[in-house]
Amino acid sequence: MNNIQPADRINQVEEYYFSIKLKELDKLRKEGKPIINLGIGNPDMAPAPEVIEEITQQSQVETNHGYQSYVGIPELREAFSSWYERYYSVKTDANTEILPLMGSKEGIMHITLAFLNPGDGVLVPNPGYPTYASASKIAQATLIPYNLDENNGWLPNLDELEKQDLSNVKLMWINYPNMPTGANASISFFEKVIAFGKKHNIVICNDNPYSFILNDSPQSILSIEGAKDIAIELNSLSKSHNMAGWRVGAAFSNPTFIQYILRVKSNMDSGMFKPLQLAAVKALQLNSNWYSAVNEEYKQRRVLVQEIMDILECTYDTNQTGMFVWARIPDKYKDSGELSDKILYGVDVFITPGLIFGETGKRYIRISLCTKQEVLIEAKERIEKIIKQ
Ligand SMILES: Cc1ncc(COP(=O)(O)O)c(C=O)c1O
User: DSSP strand E in 175-230: where?
Assistant: First the structure.
């Protein structure tokens, strides 16, 4: 038809794993397979009723349908600022230190483009959320994966990293509470990583969408004295408020860094639908009962998921945070892909193989808590059958 080749930069990345996998699951469903998807962290519970009520009402207002400000409406920035003060004890200036985003995922791309020149070094966790690496590849940055190890609480070994030449490194991604491992970071780790960033002139970016899920004390890296000088934090309403499809998040940092990110973002979109922003304000104003009620359900689901892991003879830490259970597979399987395929093609249940998060995830699987209890029970019965065969 034509001889057009795509840009080199897209030859470096593949379509997102879940984008491909969801198509496959859809195809299997169309062929009549009763697929249960325990893979993706897509909250199935509804947002709070007052949030739905607000977007419904605001959508009726004639003047609410135009383009919106590139920096979000002031009410939304103020609500994010109060939320950070109330739950993380972090003070931020709503005018200069917060940039609302369409989810934290877009923030990962904007930050990458705002800070990295082609060839600049970027530290990304292995295992880790695949978007850090793919955004870096799109920007033609030099990817420097760093290993997270179960024996080190899934934290980066900063002493080891310091032995490397870091002169070319400009940005480091961290993500605590961590996905996929469910590990939490301590304040003393945050202090160390901030000192590390300052010493080596590396921007530290903490991606923090899971701090309200199965976690007794939500923490922000910005609670460390002076952190804002070198750190950016991404946060999101996707998981904490069951609003993944709404696409609302924010970046928090010093005014200069926020301006750099805005320079990219304001050239890419033209603001968020105003009723959605006003409804997000309501979500951010919810009191702690909201989080407790959501977590009550996740706790019950976690028991069922742990039972599935037991049937699979997988081992796991019972203190994980976030909306997944991450577990080590038995030695008898070649890797987590083999176990995931056995369950998918054997009993139509999809479980995420840890290898998609990097080489160090090869011997782990991840099950999401975003599935109703009755469906988890059905999945458990099916898995029991295939394992006992
Ligand atoms: C670690 C991590 N960061 C970011 C995201 C994206 O979240 P959002 O919906 O806010 O874009 C996810 C979603 O699964 C995630 O697991």
Answer: 203-207
Does the pLDDT of residue 119 top 80, yes or no?
yes
Q: Is 197 in the same domain as 276?
A: yes
Picking from 284, 307, 330, the residue at the C-terminal end of a domain is 284
What's the CA gap between 215 and 321, in Å, rounded?
5
56 inside domain? no
pLDDT at position 40: 87
- Closest residue by CA, ligand 1 atom 2: 129
Return the ligand 1 atom nearest residue 40 CA: 14
| Residue 343 binned pLDDT confidence (cut-offs 50, 70, 90) | very high
pLDDT score recorded for residue 325? 98
- Do 360 and 373 fall into the same domain? yes
Q: Which amino acid is it at 37? A: N
Tens digits of residue pLDDT in 61-70 = 999 999 999 9
Residue ranges lining ligand 1, Cβ < 6 Å: 41, 103-105, 129, 175, 179, 207, 209, 236, 238, 244, 249
Average confidence (pLDDT) over 146-161 = 96
Give 193: exposed, middle or buried? Use CB within 10 Å, 0-12, 13-18, 19+.
buried
Element (H, E) at 365: strand 364-368
pLDDT at 14 over 80: no
Query: Is 157 in the same domain as 211?
Result: yes
Confidence of residue 53 (pLDDT cuts 50, 70, 90): very high
At which residue do the structure tokens 């879940």 appear? 18
185 CA distance to ligand 1 middle (Å)? 18
* Structure token pair of residue 341: 């395929």
Do strands 231-236 and 36-37 pair parallel, antiparallel, or not at all (unpaired)?
A: unpaired
pLDDT at 389 over 80: no
Instruction: Please answer whether residues 365 and 344 qualify as being in contact, where contact means their C-beta atoms are separated by less than 8 angstroms.
Output: no
How far is residue 125 from each of residues 145, 156, 341, 358, 371, measured CA to CA in Å?
A: 6, 8, 25, 9, 27
Rounded distance between C-alpha atoms, residue 118 and residue 140, angstroms: 5
Going by their DSSP bridges, the two strands 169-174 and 203-207 should be labelled as: parallel
What is the pLDDT averaged over residues 364-375? 97
DSSP classification of residue 37: E
Measured CA to CA, the distance from residue 319 to residue 325 in angstroms comes to 10
